[in-house]
Amino acid sequence: MIIAKRTVPTGATRHLAPKLLFTLLLASSISTGANAQEYKASNEKHLSDLTIDNFFSEGWSEPWAKRDRASGTPDMALLKVTTNFLERELRLDYARTSRIKRSKFNDSDFLNGLIAYGLNRRIMLEVISNYQWNSADTGAKASGGGGGGLLRFQLIDTELSSYAVQLRVSEPNHNVGQTQTSTQLGFGAFNDLYPLVGLSRTGLYYSATYEVLAGQHAKGTRETDIAYDVSLAKTWTERRKPLFGNFTTFLEAFATTDLDGAKSGHTVATLTPGVRFWFLPENSLTLGVDVPVSGPHPFDDVYRVTYILNF
């Protein structure tokens, strides 16, 4: 776990992300009601709309399925923004953090693996396992594993939008100095920008996650925080293009703010440019680099590689 000094945002800045998410959700709901019929796919694989109004009556008895949008804009998992749809996949994430500041360790390597399985169109289960290696020039090392579980519910799934909420619980990795159990309540969203504003094969992604940390901890350690993300992704090739199917470039703006502790209000923000492409059917790679944009920088950068097998 990396702890660095962060600047304290103003009151307006702290409340900007929730207001932005609410505004986008409201605007999307209005647009969906006005334009959804125009952009529905007219083929045998058409899926019925899932909404909050029919949450308890629709989707629970339907087999899991991934929507293909009529505009050709794919909805996909990126690197840091919370995924907004239900999946059936094996996912492996590798992250290399270099030149960690204010720590006895210089570098950190993190490997995360998960299996996600959508039970129907409304609920998904996920099992997570990970391992972390910390190293320093002096020879000091620390490594250990952890894991957790996740439950995700689909709130809305239409031609124009997708929204989901999830609950994740992760055990502490005592071998690398983590002593608190993490419980996270997250919200993830997607809007297809082609029918909304005419941007071809372009998606807007945004999310917010509230985290509670429970367990033994040093005095002044945070016990709650919020993470928020806004991302934009543009797809350039067709899905069936050899080696580079659905080649997509994206930019993720991600930040975490401590809500209590000695550094309450302290925010770390990063920008992550990246690409994702399918090199074989149902097999994709995602590459990206986290660049810190809030000072003082807690690290130089984080290099990320993700492999996903859909099944």
Give a structural overview.
- The relative contact order is 0.18.
- This protein has helices at about 10-15, 15-35, 195, and strands spanning about 90-100, 105-120, 125-135, 140-155, 160-170, 180-190, 200-215, 225-235, 245-260, 265-280, 285-290, 300-310.
- Strands 1-2-3-4-5-6-7-8-9-10-11-12 form a 12-stranded antiparallel β-barrel.
- It is about 10% helix and about 50% strand.
- The longest helix is centred in the N-terminal third of the chain and has 20 residues, at about 15-35.
- A hairpin with an 8-residue loop joins strand 9 and strand 10 (about 265-280).
- It is built from 3 helices and 12 strands, in the order H-H-E-E-E-E-E-E-H-E-E-E-E-E-E.
- With about 300 residues, the chain is mainly beta.
- The two termini are about 35 Å apart.
Brief synopsis:
With 311 residues, this protein is mainly β.
Order of helices and strands: HHEEEEEEHEEEEEE
Note poorly predicted spans: 1-44
Number of helices: 3
Instruction: Sketch the major β-sheet.
Output: 12 strands, antiparallel, barrel
pLDDT averaged over residues: 87
Shape: globular
Q: Tell me how many strands there are.
A: 12
| Order of strands in the sheet with most strands | 1-2-3-4-5-6-7-8-9-10-11-12
**Rg to the nearest angstrom?**
20 Å
The portion of residues assigned to helices is under 10%
Q: Which structural category do the helix and sheet elements fall into?
A: mainly beta
Fraction of residues in β-strands: over 45%
User: How far apart are the first and last residues' alpha carbons, in Å?
Assistant: 33 Å
